[in-house]
Amino acid sequence: MQDSNFLQPMxxxxxxxxxxxxxxxxxxxxxxxxxxxxxxxxxxxHPLDFFMELQFSRLKQFGVVEASCETVRFWKMNLLPTKRExxxxxxxxxxxxxxxxxxxxxxxxxxxxxxxxxPWTSAEDAILIEYVKKHGEGNWNAVQKNSGLSRCGKSxxxxxxxxxxxxxxxxxxxxxxxxxxxxxxxxxxxxxxxxATFLPGRTDNEIKNYWNTRIKRRQRAGLPxxxxxxxxxxxxxxxxxxxxxxxxxxxxxxxxxxxxxxxGTGFENLNTGHGDLSFASSFPDISVSNxxxxxxxxxxxxxxxxxxxxxxxxxxxDATFYSGPPSVSQFLVEPPAQLTFGLDYPYDPxxxxxxxxxxxxxxxxxxxxxxxxxxASRPLSGAVKLELPSLQCTETDDSSLRVCRxxxxxxxxxxxxxxxxxTVSLQSESISPQSRGLLDALLHxxxxxxxxxxxxxxxxSSSGITDNDMVECSGLNTFETEWEGYNYPLGHSAASVLxxxxxxxxxxxxxxxPPFKDIPGSQNTTVIAEHLSTPNMxxxxxxxxxxFYRPDxxxxxxxxxxxxxxxxxxxxxxxxxxxxxxxxxxxxxxxxVPAGTSSDLVRETKLQSHSWGKVPNVSRMPELP
DNA sequence: AACGTGAACAACCGCATGACT
DNA sequence: CAGTCATGCGGTTGTTCACGT
Length: 625
Prior knowledge:
This protein is mainly α.
């Protein structure tokens, strides 16, 4: 030993941590307390700052802890104070059951004992670790009794499972892990615990947090929930099924964020009785509308029974999304280790899922259906602060039907789904009483926007044109400008297509919509199959139609952001590198500013104007698989 | 430097489930 | 079979930090 003076202020002549882990921890805890004194002396922020910086390096340097590096590592990993603890703490706080722990949250246990809440201290961690070492996991309620730790069993279990358990991986997810999570989520839905079993060292909480963050990020970027390649991993024979499944999945996640309570509403008019769905007969006595939108009202087909018991309209979901009979495989959880999609043979990791094939029960783990269990309180779209109804087909009149009966392609659906938060209501003249308030609010917003700067100008700027152009932009020109750069396969620019099918809306909510029959692609739902089989042309056409009918385009408020992003999606989505889709933030290249004030919009228009040139031409888009 | 905002993380809460009595 | 308890799970909320303005 070169110098052991540093130990003396702590009252230690030497350290022997070569014993058991428990002993080492105790010693280290002791060191910690004593280092508090040093911290005070040297005016450190936190005793552990001093302790960690000095002790470990030097202890190791002197070989004191050489024999117990594992212990030290363990200490470092598990007993380091949380970030929140890195504030000057009272000495009493080091000691358990200190009389004064400041404003720490407390709760009263069943036996009347005061239990700590909030962040765990390193001391508490140490106690818990020791306890588990001695008694093993489980019997968490006994921790409090046996160890004196003022934490409820639940809290102990959580702390152990999420932080103290050995072999937990810390730090950011690797690319492989991220990919795994995405695929697992596509299969399992929000079954975080199950997903965690496939990611050694990761906890369900970590995965959940990661996913929620990811959702928000991608939503804000206007990206689909699942990367494109995930959607099209299906084998050829299952392609259609998987597309459908994928649409449903994407649809589900996004729309969940847009759920909006509208009691007693649904899609009655969209059921298969209209003959739109040739496979309807595959489902005994169940309409697509029921499956999609009425699950909660149809106990016999309780796909949505668990969706927070909230009545909601799965807005924007059209029966025509479904191009063929859903395969049973959609509703089965596939082999966990086999991360491919589209298996038609059922794998049964959980036998109780077998019945799913009969459509008689819930889908415990699958997101294969549109409704998911995403947070209702957290809008998935960062672009919209309010949880707006997307497509409030709350009425059963023709107008609502008209609106719902697009024949969107996969891409269009995807885009539409992604942008649905701003799609408040398409039926300008058939606003349900429930939605009128929101629509009024949006109207007001639109008026404010148009009155202040003119949202048409904003829109124009979003398409990357000059300020001079902006002056001339209005009405349809807006849309033309928006789409002018896109060459359609048959010599139609998007703008021309828009012209052809342009209803007299021009940004005014008060205008009606063209009759359903006038909407290209809406004549016959068999078009969907064509969309799916020959996605290029049809898709682009319909997607532009779709976007055009997006009510936010009519409202103009959020359209600027969403619409331009949608355009980007159309152009970028297909040829974007997989890595982009796999989570590399699209925003980084194409910075998206969340919708907010009008000034935000203006700011964003400039940003997007710059990036617009990067957007590849539609004609260069590779074909869908 | 101050402030605002979003991401990441940690923890809590309520409910579901299964074991046990 | 019903009630209780322990545990697990998923949703939600709160806090901190980093970054941009």
